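step=encode ok
step=design start
structure_in=
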């Protein structure tokens, strides 16, 4: 009887151990959520319709609504969306600040904080995807990335993409960023004149 009780305990324990091992293996590989995404600060060829999304844009944010202190970034990179596990992050770009602490330089993405997909798609036509060439891979969402500036400051970059097809109005289009103790929290809206910047894009990378 004692042996049977021990076996009865050992079998569930073995099952628990196997379950934990499977979770660890799944976590290490990223599981089904281990998608790779590309982010870009973009601009448009013209105002739609029709128009082409293009890489190499700029986006700005301000430390106050008056915009006397503003940061402007270029940039692109990639990350994997498996929170809780080591992230493959790449990318960076250039920065320019005006107002207090004016300067310029480069920045590098050093870490992944979070990424949340949002509803939305890039209608093609009238839009042509000139970033990756595949409009079906475009995604709406909100990414938070850790960055390091070339002058020694560190900060956080928030990239938000509001695609024109079905994205809720609660998601903004553009970026916000912090640099040192300055939080550039007030995003500058998409430009209605050339170069039609202050826009972003996410793409799922296959």
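sequence_out=
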């Amino acid at each position: 009887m004692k042996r049977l009780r021990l076996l009865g305990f050992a079998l569930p324990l073995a099952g628990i151990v196997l379950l934990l091992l499977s979770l660890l293996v799944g976590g290490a590989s990223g599981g089904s959520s281990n998608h790779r995404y590309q982010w870009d600060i973009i601009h448009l060829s013209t105002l739609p319709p029709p128009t082409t999304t293009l890489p190499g844009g700029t986006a700005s944010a301000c430390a106050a609504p008056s915009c006397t202190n503003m940061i402007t970034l270029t940039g692109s990179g990639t990350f994997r969306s498996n929170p809780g596990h080591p992230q493959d992050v790449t990318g960076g770009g250039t920065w320019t600040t005006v107002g207090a602490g004016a300067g310029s330089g480069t920045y590098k993405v050093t870490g992944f904080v979070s990424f949340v997909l949002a509803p939305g798609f890039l209608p093609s036509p009238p839009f042509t995807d000139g970033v990756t060439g595949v409009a079906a891979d475009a995604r709406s969402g909100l990414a938070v990335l850790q960055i390091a500036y070339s002058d020694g400051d560190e900060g956080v970059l928030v990239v938000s993409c509001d695609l024109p097809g079905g994205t809720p109005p609660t998601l903004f289009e553009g970026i916000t960023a912090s640099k040192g103790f300055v939080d550039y929290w007030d995003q500058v809206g998409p430009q209605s004149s050339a170069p039609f910047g202050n826009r972003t894009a996410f793409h799922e990378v296959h």
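step=design ok
step=annotate ok -> Residues 1-31 form one domain.
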